């Protein structure tokens, strides 16, 4: 091994260890709950020493903050990929709605809820998770902005409507985890159709006055 390849090899091994610790942390949070979510339990499941966990993560908060970012792959990144995809804004919105309606796994929901509870007890984690929710809302604002141009919806406020739709969608996903039969796709699709259908199309014409006889 040359002097140049040695550091890169060590960096690769360190990245693999860090990823293994994160996966273990996710598993503990999802399958064993908050009571068992400790750095010692994470180390045990990851097959590393307790000191190794703290080598990669300063403390439990640091590990939780990393999990917040790690969880993007479950909800934010797929959304952004759909919104940035090909096709009209309406077609992409319908694809987003269909994806949202796919039932999330119980592990995904437990991680999501676990992070939410942890955020309520730690202001640093709260700010981090709040930033993730803001990132979740942003693609919906983008879609409704494109829809307002595509469908000539001058009366639509893309930011207000997009953010409200994002919050409603997230709430429905959480309720669907408790009520699998909830018609999430139909509810979101009808809401979307009514939003764009009721918004005034084009600019309102000035009322015409009758000429006197």
Instruction: Indicate the radius of gyration in whole angstroms.
Output: 23 Å
| Name given to the CATH homologous superfamily of the largest domain | Tetracycline Repressor, domain 2
Distance linking N and C termini: 100 Å
Query: Would you give the CATH topology of the largest domain?
Result: Tetracycline Repressor, domain 2
Number of strands: 0
The biggest beta sheet reads:
none
Provide the number of structural domains. Answer: 2
Secondary-structure content class: mainly alpha
% residues in beta strands:
under 5%
Number of alpha- plus pi-helical segments: 10
Name the CATH class of the largest domain.
Mainly Alpha
- Give the averaged pLDDT, no decimals: 90
| CATH architectural name of the largest domain | Orthogonal Bundle
Query: Per the principal axes of the C-alpha atoms, what is the gross shape?
Result: elongated
What are the secondary-structure elements, in order, as H or E? HHHHHHHHHH
Helix content: over 70%
Q: What is the chains' assembly state?
A: single chain
| Uncertain segments | 203-213
Layout: helices, strands, pairs:
Blueprint: H1 5-31, H2 39-46, H3 50-56, H4 60-70, H5 72-83, H6 89-101, H7 106-120, H8 123-150, H9 158-178, H10 184-198
Helix pairs in contact: 1-2, 1-7, 2-3, 4-8, 5-8, 6-8, 6-10, 7-8, 8-9, 9-10
Report what the structure shows:
The chain is 74% helix and 0% strand. It is mainly alpha-helical. The chain folds into two domains: 12-57, Arc Repressor Mutant, subunit A (Orthogonal Bundle); 65-198, Tetracycline Repressor, domain 2 (Orthogonal Bundle). The protein is elongated. The model is unreliable at 203-213 (pLDDT under 50).
């Amino acid at each position: 091994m040359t002097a140049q390849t040695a550091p890169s090899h060590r960096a690769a091994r360190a990245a693999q260890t860090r990823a293994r610790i994160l996966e273990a942390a996710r598993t503990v949070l999802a399958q064993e709950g908050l009571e068992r979510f400790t750095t010692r339990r994470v180390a045990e499941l990851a097959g590393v020493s307790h000191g190794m966990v703290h080598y990669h993560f300063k403390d439990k908060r640091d590990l939780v903050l990393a999990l917040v970012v790690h969880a993007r792959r479950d909800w934010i990144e797929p959304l952004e990929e759909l919104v940035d995809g090909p096709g009209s804004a309406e077609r992409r919105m319908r694809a987003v709605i269909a994806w949202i309606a796919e039932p999330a796994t119980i592990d995904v929901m437990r991680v999501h809820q676990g992070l939410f509870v942890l955020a309520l007890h730690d202001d640093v984690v709260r700010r981090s998770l709040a930033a993730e929710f803001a990132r979740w809302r942003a693609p919906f604002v983008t879609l409704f902005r494109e829809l307002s141009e595509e469908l000539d919806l001058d009366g639509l406020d893309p930011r207000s409507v997009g953010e409200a739709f994002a919050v409603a969608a997230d709430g429905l996903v959480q309720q669907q985890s408790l009520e699998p039969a909830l018609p999430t796709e139909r509810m979101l699709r009808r809401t979307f159709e009514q939003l764009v259908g009721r918004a005034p199309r084009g600019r309102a014409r000035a009322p015409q006055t009758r000429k006197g006889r």
